[in-house]
């Protein structure tokens, strides 16, 4: 039995996301795959490899390395803000980004950035991996543009009224990466240590980078 | 759905797995593989999601929508038949849609510059568009030029790429949402030349 032929999850439960798929999704997807395999359109082993890449190789740790490098190296930060795609390529990232574009937007004491895709679920997967369910769900997609401060509060982030919030609705093939503010007291840290402070949520803009004492 | 109220609380999940069940990974991998067949564009695939009847769209999980779109597109492209996919993938009853009437020779040179005020067109096509409803008929300022990009309103309907200038445009919150919108907030969108007019 191939590794994916796993019916443990065939009876999907309502996991609190409020949108339980029908209990037969595993069966239905297997039927679809069988048809495509029969026609020679997909190779199950190649599908396994793609799944492995997204489960184990691509993810927010890549983005964290980019942000940490930008904090530690002002010249790199400038290159990242000027041409983010070229800057992540320098770090060996961005494979498969042909035809796609990346823009880095930096948080400052005056400006906080927040990324959303109201039309579907566009996400900078080359640096953050695949998006979490909440990012793809109607509550976030609908409210991030009309009530960003309320959304931030829901994530436990409260910003002074004087801070301007810039929302980036990813309507085209441009993907946006937030460079969060570097936490105080981390000057001179290594890129590796800094990367541990950079969360996925801080690079979407619904969170802040971790304070040094909470990251230990 | 940008700007709608009443769609519920945001529900972040601690230590969320990449895929919640093996079938989600299979759907992801099949969908990304399918683009290599060159039978439909990224925009046609996005439009296929929009063709899922509204109540079903809101009920379905993310990867259920992906699976549904893959099955529908495979049938439309002649790669599989309804009979082969039934009973697991019945016809979803998608409506016929009409693309936005677009310029077959779109401008290749940007008509706007950074700092220009622009007003978005009030367009409401049944076909695919990437000008969100909440941003139609509003005034913004061009903040960046992105170069020439495939026009999704055409590409989604297999009318070719019709590349044209793409702009980053900044809209103040009170322009989009009225005077009650809380202050010091702006929304940026990436918008194609054909969506924009002079103020």
Instruction: Please tell me how large the radius of gyration of chain A is.
Output: 20 Å
Biggest interface, and residues per chain?
A-B, 80 and 75 residues
**Mean pLDDT score of chain A:** 89
Q: Which segments of chain B are poorly predicted (pLDDT under 50) over 5 or more consecutive residues?
A: none
Number of helices of chain A: 12
- As laid out across the biggest beta sheet of chain B, the strand order is 4-3-2-1-5
Task: Summarize the topology.
The complex is a heterodimer of chains A (216) and B (199).
Chain A: H1 25-38, H2 44-57, H3 60-72, H4 74-82, H5 84-90, E1 101-106, E2 111-116, H6 125-128, H7 133-136, H8 138-143, H9 148-154, E3 164-169, E4 174-179, H10 191-195, H11 200-204, H12 212-215
Parallel strand pairs in A: 1-4, 2-3
Helix pairs in contact in A: 3-4, 4-5
Chain B: H1 22-34, H2 42-50, H3 54-59, H4 62-76, H5 82-85, E1 117-120, E2 139-149, H6 152-155, E3 164-172, H7 173-177, E4 185-192, E5 196-198
Antiparallel strand pairs in B: 1-2, 1-5, 2-3, 3-4
Question: What can you see in these coordinates?
Answer:
The complex is a heterodimer of chains A (216) and B (199). Helix content of chain A is 43%, strand content 11%. With 216 residues, chain A is of the alpha/beta class. Chain A has a two-stranded parallel sheet with strand order 1-4. Chain A has a two-stranded parallel ribbon with strand order 2-3. Chain A is globular, with a radius of gyration of 20 Å. With 199 residues, chain B is an alpha+beta fold. Helix content of chain B is 28%, strand content 18%. The radius of gyration of chain B is 19 Å and the shape is globular. Chain B starts with 21 loop residues before the first helix and ends with a strand. The model of chain B has no long low-confidence stretch (mean pLDDT 94). At the A-B interface, helix 1, helix 2, helix 7, helix 8 and helix 9 of A face helix 1, helix 4, strand 2, strand 3 and strand 4 of B.
């Amino acid at each position: 039995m191939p590794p994916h032929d796993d019916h443990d999850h065939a009876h999907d439960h309502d996991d609190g996301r409020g949108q339980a798929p029908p209990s037969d999704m595993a069966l239905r997807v297997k039927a679809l795959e069988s048809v495509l395999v029969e026609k020679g359109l997909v190779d199950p082993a190649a599908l396994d490899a793609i799944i492995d890449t997204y489960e184990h190789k691509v993810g927010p740790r890549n983005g964290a390395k980019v942000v940490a490098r930008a904090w530690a190296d002002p010249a790199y930060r400038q290159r990242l803000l000027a041409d983010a795609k070229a800057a992540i390529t320098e770090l060996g990232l961005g494979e498969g980004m042909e035809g796609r574009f990346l823009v880095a937007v930096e948080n400052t004491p005056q400006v906080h950035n927040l990324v959303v895709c109201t039309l579907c679920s566009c996400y900078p997967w080359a640096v953050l991996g695949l998006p979490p369910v909440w990012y793809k769900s109607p509550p976030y997609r609908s409210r991030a543009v009309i009530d960003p401060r309320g959304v931030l509060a829901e994530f436990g982030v409260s910003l002074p009224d004087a801070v301007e919030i810039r929302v980036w609705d990813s309507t085209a093939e441009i993907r946006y990466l937030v460079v969060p503010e570097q936490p105080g007291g981390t000057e001179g840290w290594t890129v590796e240590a800094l990367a541990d402070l950079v969360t996925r949520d801080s690079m979407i803009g619904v969170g802040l980078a971790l304070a040094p004492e909470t990251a230990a | 759905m940008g700007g709608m109220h009443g769609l519920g609380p945001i529900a972040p999940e601690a230590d969320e797995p990449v895929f919640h069940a093996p079938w989600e990974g299979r759907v992801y991998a099949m969908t990304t593989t399918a683009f290599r067949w060159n039978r439909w564009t990224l925009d046609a695939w996005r439009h296929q999601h929009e063709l899922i009847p509204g109540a079903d769209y809101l009920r379905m999980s993310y990867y259920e929508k992906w699976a549904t779109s893959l099955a529908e597109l495979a049938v439309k492209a002649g790669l599989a038949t309804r009979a082969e996919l039934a009973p697991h993938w019945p016809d979803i009853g998608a409506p016929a849609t009409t693309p936005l009437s677009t310029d077959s020779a779109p401008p290749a040179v940007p008509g706007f510059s950074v700092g220009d005020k622009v007003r978005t067109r009030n367009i409401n096509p049944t076909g695919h568009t990437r000008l969100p409803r909440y941003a139609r008929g509003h005034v913004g300022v061009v903040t960046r030029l992105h170069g020439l990009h495939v026009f999704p309103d055409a590409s989604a309907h297999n009318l070719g790429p019709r590349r044209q200038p793409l702009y980053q445009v900044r809209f103040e919150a009170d322009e989009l949402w009225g005077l009650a919108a809380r202050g010091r907030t702006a929304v940026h969108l990436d918008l194609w030349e054909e969506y924009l007019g002079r103020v």
